[in-house]
Amino acid sequence: MRHLSAIVIKTAMVALVLWFILSGLYNYPIGGTFVLSLFIVGISYLIGDLGILRISNNIIATIADLAITTFALWLLAPIVYGVGIPFGAAFISALIIGVGEWFFHKFVANGLLNNNPSPIS
């Protein structure tokens, strides 16, 4: 259940950023943007949040998520939209998502990766 809440929060964060930048500023279709958001969340949650964050720290995991998100956006957009997106748009989107990831990693590290369960209040 804890993973579900983390995935929902991350999906909302990524989708809002991508909707604003890709759909709002670059006029890409909203449906494709949501599909792209789901791909990004799936990839970066497994690799960055559950993998890299577990064995390193927030700085390394945030940088990894920045790279993962940038290249995933740039490489998956032609599949989802049928046309590519500018690398700059992918990087700016990933940079803004990276700011959110910094705080999201604190949530994940304290709630999901912490082996000491918190008492029920």
UniProtKB/TrEMBL annotation:
InterPro entries, per the entry: DUF2512
The keyword Protein biosynthesis appears for this protein: no
Transmembrane helix is among the record's keywords: yes
Alphabetic keyword roster: Membrane, Transmembrane, Transmembrane helix
Transmembrane spans: 7-28, 34-52, 59-77, 83-104
Domain of life: Bacteria
Pfam families referenced in this protein's UniProt entry, alphabetically: DUF2512
Protein name as catalogued: DUF2512 domain-containing protein
